[in-house]
Automatic annotation (TrEMBL):
The lineage of its organism: Bacteria, Pseudomonadati, Pseudomonadota, Alphaproteobacteria, Sphingomonadales. PANTHER family: FAMILY PROTEIN, PUTATIVE-RELATED, GLYCOSYL HYDROLASE FAMILY 19 DOMAIN-CONTAINING PROTEIN HI_1415. SUPFAM superfamilies: Lysozyme-like (SSF53955). Residues 87-107 are annotated as: Disordered. InterPro entries: Cell_Wall_Dynamics_Protein, Glyco_hydro_19_cat, Lysozyme-like_dom_sf. Residues 68-150 form the Glycoside hydrolase family 19 catalytic domain. It comes from the Bacteria. This is Glycoside hydrolase. Keywords: Hydrolase. Gene3D superfamilies: 1.10.530.10.
Length: 200
């Protein structure tokens, strides 16, 4: 990745390091408010390296494109809908009354369902099942999004530039689904904007 070119396009000090300042500017460019962008940028400077998202430009392009779409241009770290539609969903582990609303989508990729909150919490050593609301914190939400990205093999799909499969994995749970992801055209358009900035 040409860090200097990206930094010049973003208008930040060109130090050739993709760190918090550059990533904050990237989130700002794609819609995040300043305080959210700063928190996302700080977290991304750590987690993007841990999960290999900065290892190749296309990984960054697709991650920002998909997450930008899912989170309404990084404006929403919690699903706008109540979550009532998830009530009683056994596939999400929502086994108790109120689980649909309690474990609704949060974070840039919208972590959803008691079972997923429990599994991610066990991975991080954070009791997300007991405290699901903290996933709406931009830094925690970004961490869960990076874990999902890694766990489902989306770096490999990004390496082949398969945005359609990535979107279907995120929204349908299956990259080979014949059914389009919700907002598939919008996902593609958002990712194209990121591509133009990152790759030039």
């Amino acid at each position: 990745m040409d860090a200097l070119k990206l930094q010049r396009r973003l208008g930040v000090t060109p130090d050739n390091q993709i760190g918090p300042a550059t990533l904050t500017a990237l989130f700002l460019r794609f819609g995040a408010k300043l305080d959210v962008a700063q928190e996302l940028g700080l977290a991304a400077a750590v987690h993007f390296r841990t999960y290999g998202i900065l290892d190749a430009p296309l990984r960054l392009v697709h991650f920002i494109g998909q997450c930008g779409h899912e989170s309404g241009s990084f404006r929403y770290m919690e699903e706008i809908a109540s979550g009532a539609d998830y009530e009683g969903r056994a596939d999400l582990g929502n086994s108790q009354p109120g689980d649909g609303k309690r474990y609704k989508g949060r974070g840039p990729i919208q972590l959803t369902g008691r079972a997923n909150y429990r599994a991610d919490g066990a991975t991080f050593g954070i009791d997300l099942e007991r405290h699901p609301e903290i996933v709406a914190m931009p830094s925690i939400g970004l961490l869960t999004s990076c874990l999902y990205w890694s766990r489902t093999g989306l770096n490999a799909l990004a390496d082949t530039d398969d945005g359609i499969a990535i979107g279907r994995s995120i929204n349908r749970g299956n990259p080979r689904s014949a059914k389009p992801a919700n907002g598939e055209a919008e996902r593609t358009a958002f990712t194209a904007r990121v591509r133009a900035l990152v790759l030039g």
